[in-house]
Design brief:
Strand content: 15-25%
CATH topology: Mannitol-specific EII, Chain A
Strand order of the largest sheet: 1-4-7-3-2
Keywords: Sugar transport, Transport
InterPro entries: PTrfase/Anion_transptr, PTS_EIIA_type-2_dom, PTS_SugarTrans_NitroReg
Distance between the termini: 8 Å
Number of strands: 7
Pfam family, one: PTS_EIIA_2
Largest sheet: 5 strands, mixed
Protein name: PTS sugar transporter subunit IIA
C-alpha cells in the first residue's frame, strides 16, 4: 500500500508560507494551483467546501494542529496529495466536532481516487501525526523535497 500512496506526493504540490483568513480563501488558493496542474475539475471547490462544512477535518494532536481536507473522487482528475505549511495557522473546525477550532500548522489535502484509498491514507497520516518526533521532523522541513522525504519515510 505505502508505495502506491507515497507516489501521490510530489514536491510541486508542497507549498510554504501561504496566508488565508478562512478555509474558503485557502481552498480558493489551493484549487487554483491544483486546477492549473490538471489535478481537479470545476466542481472541486464546491465539493471540498461542502464536505469540510459537513465533515470537518481539523485534528488536534499532542504534537501539532493539522487538517486533512479531502473531497469526493468525482472532483479529482489526476490523483494527488498536496502539503501546505502556512505562514500562520489556518483555522479549521475539529474532526467529528471534538474540541475547539483547530489552528492548523500543516494541511494535507487528499486527492485519492482508488476505492478505500482515502481512508487508508487518512489513517496512515493520523498515525504519523500522533507521534511527536515524527511530527516535529515533518514540521521542521523547509524545502519541498525535504517535506516529501519526511512524510513518505513514515508511511507504512
Amino acid at each position: 500500500m505505502a508505495s502506491k500512496d507515497t507516489e501521490l506526493f510530489s514536491p510541486d504540490l508542497v507549498f510554504f508560507d501561504w496566508e488565508a483568513q478562512s478555509t474558503d480563501e485557502f481552498f480558493t488558493k489551493l484549487g487554483a494551483e491544483l486546477k492549473q496542474r490538471g489535478n481537479i475539475n470545476d466542481g472541486w471547490f464546491d465539493g471540498i467546501s461542502t464536505r469540510e462544512k459537513n465533515y470537518p477535518t481539523g485534528l488536534h494532536t499532542e504534537a501539532a494542529a493539522i487538517a486533512i481536507p479531502h473531497t469526493d473522487p468525482q472532483f479529482i482528475e489526476k490523483p494527488y496529495i498536496a502539503v501546505i505549511k502556512p505562514k500562520t495557522p489556518i483555522v479549521f473546525q475539529p474532526m467529528a466536532g471534538m474540541g475547539d477550532e483547530v489552528p492548523a500548522e500543516l494541511i494535507i489535502n487528499l486527492g485519492v481516487l482508488r476505492d478505500g484509498g482515502q481512508v487508508a491514507v487518512l489513517q496512515n497520516l493520523m498515525n504519523i501525526f500522533m507521534d511527536k518526533e515524527k511530527t516535529a521532523d515533518i514540521l521542521a522541513q523547509t524545502t519541498q523535497e525535504g517535506m516529501i522525504d519526511a512524510i513518505t519515510k513514515y508511511f507504512e
